[in-house]
Specification:
Blueprint: H1 5-9, H2 22-30, H3 40-49, H4 53-66, H5 77-83, H6 93-105, H7 115-132
Helix pairs in contact: 3-4, 3-5, 6-7
Length: about 130
């Protein structure tokens, strides 16, 4: 897909004079990107700011399939951000369930920084799994 986010959603870019905050600057940069150029930082901000949520979810799942500990600021951040999204926002719950199952199946292959990180991540994964299977 070669269209930018701006083209996909029919958006206007803010004028430079309206870019008073870092988030405004980031937003203007984001909407000029194509979907394949969205990175972990973009997906994290999109989820935390609830912007283009469906697209952010898709990208987060892509990143988590490659690296279950993906996160812009800390290990597991993307999974945590997904956890706090309302399940009604997920258009493809089976894909999310598959992701959680795959992560759970591969926990033994993850190299943890320390035991506490592993414990916190496993707790989050367990709570998220319970949430989607209600």
């Amino acid at each position: 897909m070669n269209k930018t986010i701006q083209e996909l959603y029919g958006l206007n870019q803010r004028k430079e004079s309206e870019q008073d905050y870092a988030l405004d600057y980031w937003y203007n940069q984001l909407i000029t990107k194509t979907v394949d150029k969205i990175d972990i930082e973009d997906a994290s901000i999109m989820l935390s700011q609830r912007l283009f949520v469906e697209l952010a979810i898709e990208k987060a799942i892509e990143f988590l399939l490659v690296d279950p500990l993906a996160g812009e600021k800390y290990d597991g951040q993307l999974l945590e951000l997904l956890y706090f999204i309302d399940l009604n926002e997920f258009n493809d719950l089976p894909r999310l369930k598959n992701l959680l199952h795959r992560i759970n199946s591969n926990l033994m292959n993850i190299e943890w920084f320390d035991e506490e990180d592993k414990k916190e991540y496993c707790k989050l994964l367990d709570e998220f799994t319970k949430k989607v299977h209600k």
